[in-house]
Amino acid sequence: MLTVPMRLAKYLTHAGVCSRRQASRLIDAGDITVNGRLANHIDHVTELDEIVVLGQKVAGLAEKQLFAYHKPVGIDCKLNHADANSIIHFLPTHTRLYPIGRLDKDSRGLLLITNDGELCQRLIHPDKHVEKEYWVTVDKPLDAQFCHTMANGVPVDGQLTLPCEVSLITPNQFRIVLKQGLNRQIRKMAKYCGYKVIDLIRTRIGNISVDDLKIAESTFIELSATQQIY
């Protein structure tokens, strides 16, 4: 049981009720009460407090869960009920889960999904530099300069990408290990170098890999919530 007070919005996230941003909106709308009074943004709560959201009493903190998912092409990582291709329609439990980082709709491979907000923040925070490995196929043979240029950083969305590991696998395929996650970063990096990505698979996040899990496409595998990822 949580006995150390936690900020209300953070508590609701850990309880699997909503995101912190959604909690803030609900507080502003007067849709949350704490011990019978309207909640405010500076409230700190424990599981001993009675918290009601949209007329429903919050049961308490949800058990932390962590899943590995082999995302196929065509699934969108945005949690959008209106989109039939949203990952929200494929999640393995009714607990509020969300992806740690994203893969764009045209990419496939390893995705970690959790209800643990602190784990999510640790893994996506730029200061942590958690490695993410990808195998990428492009539309034409790669030249000798490609790996050097990519590894040393190229301009993407007005900033230079961080140094990374890049190596050839086949004449049309390369391996890249990133420690940052800009929007469609690899596709934009390859485009800058004159190539079009035709297949992109994420094979590893930290020390968790698709191969080690032997996880097939469209499959979820539950991991220990205390799994060390980096």
Automatic annotation (TrEMBL):
Keyword Manganese: no
Signal peptide: none
Similarity-based family: Belongs to the pseudouridine synthase RsuA family.
Keywords of this entry: Isomerase, RNA-binding
Catalysed reaction equations from the record: uridine(35) in tRNA(Tyr) = pseudouridine(35) in tRNA(Tyr); uridine(2604) in 23S rRNA = pseudouridine(2604) in 23S rRNA
EC number(s) on file: 5.4.99.-
Protein name as annotated: Pseudouridine synthase
